[in-house]
Amino acid sequence: MDKMTDGSENNRKMKFNKTESEYNMKSIRFLLLTITTMFILISGLMIILGISVYTHYHNFSFFLESAKSGRFLTPSILVALLGLALFVVTLFGFFGSFKQSTCMVNLYAFFLTLILIVKLVLVILTFTMGPEMIMSYISVPVREYAYDPEIEAEIDGLQVSLNCCGSNSYLDYIGMEFTSNHSTVVVSNVIDGDQITVVLPRSCCVSASEIYCTRLRITSCKDALADMLLQNSSVLGVLGVSVMFTQLLGIIFALLLARCIRKMKSEKALITWMMKEQMILARQASENKEDSVYIAKPDSSTA
After folding, report:
1. Which residue from 36, 125, 181, 303 puts its CA 20 to 30 A from 236's CA?
2. What is the signed CA dihedral for 223, 185, 150, 177, rounded to 10 degrees?
């Protein structure tokens, strides 16, 4: 009777532990599915943002020296690539949660950690990148403006779009020999007590008369390009930091879910083994009972 009572108490304990593990796993699984769904949306936004920024500023890649040789990756391209990688990795966590696969969930946590490290390095580089470093990647070939129609069109578009003039200043055009095919204006200013007259492309002027420029674009195109790249890098860096915190939560919940899945599978295997053991013991007990022979005591006789 005591053995039966002990067995029923053990069964109740096993049943309680199993229910508790399943409850924990379902809670963590729900949180992980919520985070993976957020990652799918975030990765889609990152891809769209990266492509839209790259498309909007693609014309300015002509003035990035390393971009001509394919060695320069703009922040917009990096964001789009990281968004694509995050989308692919998120699928591991999404389907791993549904299938309760320890392998897929662990892979999800591993790849998510790699992306987190890459993002951390890029964010640090983004916030530590100064104007001098960006300036080293920028080249505005003003001296070739009068000799190459392609460069002329690119520089005109740059000067109008960014409201700038020249590589370092409008004085870069001093001594340039324009032809009758170029649209030019004249600017006359006093610099260090000397009267200087410069012939400039009409794109350097906000407003101009037939010959003279009445309102000049003062900002240099190098400074304008560097400011634009710094602003984009700062925005993308802040976006990266916010996504990194969510990724850290995803890694933690993925590892917890993998642990719960392993624990639940181990408990199921233990319960199955104990049930089989009890069945074997019960079968042996019934067989021993059938094999036992009852021998009656002989009646005592009186003489």
Report:
1. 36
2. -100
